[in-house]
Amino acid sequence: MLKTLLARHPAVRYLIAATIGVAGVLCFAPFGLFWLAPLIWLGLFQLLCSAGTTRQAALSGLAFGLGFFLTGVSWVYVSLSVFGGMPWWLAGPAAFLFCAVMALFPMLAGGIFKRWQPNGLWRQALCFAALIAAVDWLRSWIFTGFPWLALGYSQAAPSPLSGFAPLLGVHGLSLLVALSGALLVRWRTGVIFATLLIISGFVLRQVPWTAPVGEPVSVALIQGNVPQEMKFRPEAFLRTLSLYQQLIEQNPAQLTILPETALPIFFNQLPPMYVERLQKAVWAHGGDLITGTLSGDPDAYWNSAVSLGVSPTQVYSKRHLVPFGEFIPPGFAWFMAHANIPMSSFSRGPENQPPLAVAGQKVAVNICYEDVFGEELIGVLTQAGILANLSNTAWFGHSLAQPQHLQIAQMRAAETGRPMLRATNTGMTAIVSASGKVQAVLPAFTTGVLRGEVRAHQGLTPYARFGNYAFLLLAGLCLLFSQLPSRRR
């Protein structure tokens, strides 16, 4: 009956696809229904298999993507309109257009799947899973990349499948989830395969890919909760400096980390007496401080993290910039003229920057959404034993962005076998273990300091050694086997 309805009324097919896409957001943080992901992508698989034409399948993928991204990254509108100062009549279409571009990727997967749809469940499932994961990987680098809400992120801890992260990375997890979902067309086959995956994931989680080294380091991660609308106002500047100085002095630690642009001024323009007070505060207990700030001058400036303390002063400058937020793509100056985003023309930091040597450790710093690009973080792991992310998610208000970003950090920790320290302005400031579990987290939109201890880890996971090559090989083999001619009696 459903097949007849879909054949007679194609619009119903696209409405169902969009609804399934909306429901797919439930698989990710903060909802965390990771077990639902195979069922959601089973629904997409069945819609693609039942499509009568390549065009129908492609449009089904587009509808799924629109429902998925318009719901899952709705915070793009918040950043443009509420905090970016863009009028709603421009921010709304801009956010919709952005989500529509993201929806082209599942559309591409749907069209290719139908164009070369093989016979037999296993071949179809392998083809579907490889394409779903491949388009997630494709959008992780094309147009500077936006891999947010890649399917594999739904399987961050506590999902048992997180055990595969050190082997295959997030895109390999996307493939496994999509494959298990497609195989559920035949419940017995699907349940058996899913059970084997779960058991394998539990076993892999027990493998010590990396090992702790040295003594624990005390850390203090400071969440200032400075409202975004006040961050760059001159009248709030002194209050911001005073707030961070007070929190640093009251929470001594070997390593103190402040959020991205916590000190919203060029570092060399800070009052010398203030810098001296910060130095004394961390010197008093033999510690180091990493703070987000600006480096350079008004003609060429960087989004940076600067260290102060007993170790020599060091700087890390952000390499992977946010389009429209930190740099203006060619031809879009007219668009940004309608927004009020301070410091929107950053320069890119150098490609190969060493980790910061602080608190007797080597800390690999990344800023804001740089931690979304897992393969860009692994080059420094032969030296670094700890990852640290400095973010300012105040741009996205009370939205899904904060818990989603923490889930991404969990995946990076699991992939690399390194603990991740997150210092954010409004949330979610957290300590993530080397296995990807959240050890402690501060409530969002509160002023506070998260204190704890962390140990550096040494050694390399398979993902840290080979990056996405293992996933690409697996996806290629799945596509190859799916297109092999079937035996005929």
From TrEMBL:
GO terms for cellular component: plasma membrane. It is an enzyme of class 2 (transferase). It holds the Pfam family CN_hydrolase. It is found in: Cell membrane. It comes from the Bacteria. Its main location: membrane. The chain crosses the membrane at residues 12-45, 57-78, 90-113, 125-143, 163-184, 191-209. Catalyzes the phospholipid dependent N-acylation of the N-terminal cysteine of apolipoprotein, the last step in lipoprotein maturation. HAMAP family: Lnt. Belongs to the CN hydrolase family. Apolipoprotein N-acyltransferase subfamily. This is Apolipoprotein N-acyltransferase. It comes from Dechloromonas denitrificans. The gene is lnt.
